[in-house]
Amino acid sequence: xxxAASSVSKLVxxxxxxxxxxxxxKRSDGLTQNGLIPKGATLFVxxxxxxxxxxxxxxxxxxxxxxxxxxHTKKVVMRQYNRNLIPEGDVDLPYPxxxxxxxxxxxxxxxxxxxxxxxPHSAG
Length: 124
Prior knowledge:
This is Tumor suppressor candidate 2-like. This protein is mostly beta strands.
């Protein structure tokens, strides 16, 4: 299953500008009141968009299939069922996670000295 075009457009349209705030939060000197993060925003994410669907019976799954009898071959085949599915909606995360657009370096690896591993010795 591929991504929906709407979810891709939302990813493109909401870059780091989420942390900069809106023009309403700008002071007269051009800076935001709280620096980089707008008032009321958090660095953590508490919910995510669910990837599953509810069917007419209330069952929850990623995909639904239905058994159908093929008219020409008289065999029973499984066909994907896409009608009358309701998205799961927002799902609570088990623990808070950092926002994906967090403009902070959490761990700088430029000062690490990584030694190349030696090739394994062959016995014989």
